[in-house]
Amino acid sequence: MKIGIIGSGAMGSGIAQVAAMAGCEVRIYDADTHALERGRQLIAKNLLRSLEKGRLTKDAITDILNRLKPAERLSSLGNSDLIIEAIIEDLEIKKSIFTELELDVSDTCILATNTSSLSVTSIAAACQKPERVIGIHFFNPATLMPLVEIIPALQTDPSVISRSKQIINEWGKTTVLAKDTPGFIVNRIARPFYGEALRIFEEGIADMRTIDQSLKEIGGFRMGAFELMDFIGHDVNYAVTESIWRSLYFDPRYKPSLSQKRLVEAGFLGRKSGRGFYDYENAPPQYNTDSLLSFSKELGQKIVHRIVVMLINEAADALFWQIASRDDIDLAMQKGVNYPKGLLQWADDLGIENVVYSLDELYDTYREDRYRCSPLLRKMVINKESFY
């Protein structure tokens, strides 16, 4: 199978590596030839790391690299069976790329966007054959993260959906199907992990180290919210939050944080700049094995419970609005952001009645629509239902 990749940044080169490792012939196009070379060097570095760990042989690496070729022009991708665009999150630029692509590709070529939050339907509308456009959203780093969201546009042909799922599954990834709504599954449902942690911090209920510590040691999350925002980069994380907030008509549930906005304005973007919420040169986040002794366990449990019930509320609303199936929602949050368990399963474990009570308590305290309880959760309490 012949695969075309547009964009040779971390995501584009990662997707290219995944495809080449699956035996596909891959051509990568980038308007910046220097970026194209950096992308190839990044792939070679990743493969060398696999060699050192004994996961790949030298011959296998040679074969993989031989399947990766640069494309001098966008039209050089014309004989591809599938093209995945992974460039800047700018709707107009993406639409112009897809419009140009259509001039050179075959009628059976699938055109996919790796957008994390933009409208796939809007991108498809820029094409003469919108029925072959689809969202195929990998998570960073694409070589390691198992989840891929498949997002059909309103115009996407059902055969394109099934072919896309089959291809990505054959690449060894786990696919979930999402409706074309802002943030899709993971980026939409995950907003309270960051947003509610920021709210707790801004209110002065706890400092960021205590919040992160609580989420890791009590909640079982691999990273705390502030660590994770620093890792993702505040320019990226804030932009996704703002995009979802605007796209959902300024719903207060997704309202961005001024604290994070100020970091972006200051250029404190997280690990990549040496400073974000944490100062990675002078005071990086470190915890002792007995660190629970350094703060109130009761406070930690309250922090985790507040964030988790807000996450559950988002997951329930995603199911209520038919953004994805129950199983795909829980699978996506475990495989896409490494949550310790599926959120709908977590709701059952906590007791849905307890989740509703906690959300109502937050709403009564703040009187903000941010804390409105999903209708699905209320119905389930009335009918004494569970998710599983």
Describe the structure.
The chain is α/β, with parallel strands linked by helices and about 400 residues long. About 50% of the residues lie in helices and about 10% in strands. It has an eight-stranded mixed β-sheet with strand order 3-2-1-4-5-6-7-8, with helices on both faces. A hairpin with an 8-residue loop joins strand 6 (about 135-140) and strand 7. It is globular and about 60 Å long. About 45% of the residues are buried. Residues about 285-295 have low confidence and may be disordered.
Query: How many alpha or pi helices?
Result: 17
- Count the E strands: 8
Indicate the radius of gyration in whole angstroms. Answer: 22 Å
Span between termini: 40 Å
Summarize the structure.
The chain is of the alpha/beta class and 388 residues long. It has 17 helices and 8 strands. It has an 8-stranded mixed beta sheet, sandwiched between helices.
Relevant terms:
388 residues, alpha/beta, 8-stranded mixed beta sheet, 10% strand, globular
